[in-house]
Prior knowledge:
Number of strands: 13
Mean pLDDT: 91
Oligomer: single chain
CATH topology of the largest domain: Outer Surface Protein A, domain 3
Shape: elongated
Amino acid sequence: MSRIGKLPIKIPANVDVIFNGNDITVKGKFGTLQNQIPTELEIEKTTDLLILRLKEETRTSRCLYGLFRSLINNMIIGVSDQFKITLNLKGVGFRGLVQGNLLTLNLGFSHPVQMNIPDGISVEVVQNTTLNLKGPDKEALGIFAANIRSWRQPEPYKGKGIIYQGEIIRRKAGKSGKK
């Protein structure tokens, strides 16, 4: 039995949770998120709590129990507070620029990299080298941040690249460390 799945989910006052069969919709200050719950699970709603229960205890239902509790909790947190990811651009000439719905990155290539910003995600550029990504959907935000990072992953010799805030890059000595 999942320890995470047993925990009740607290619903803030400014969030509405609506059930329609197996579909769950969460509405809040920062948007609306939807998900489908497997048929092996059922949700019980009280005034300010959601409790996930197993209809029957099988191997697949136990696997999905904690997962969907976390997914629903992330939906509620996202529409009430939003998630934030900060990316730092480290390298000579590395910079970012937002123009409408387009993110332009100069990453040392012969051309600028242009990416469309997905709906529901906002990008703020601070001092040309710091990107603040915000959005209610944790999964979509993480995928977009990973796509940005995939253009220049940090390298271990000089530490250049696109780095998550708080990430530690293990450095290598290179040629001079061979002695």
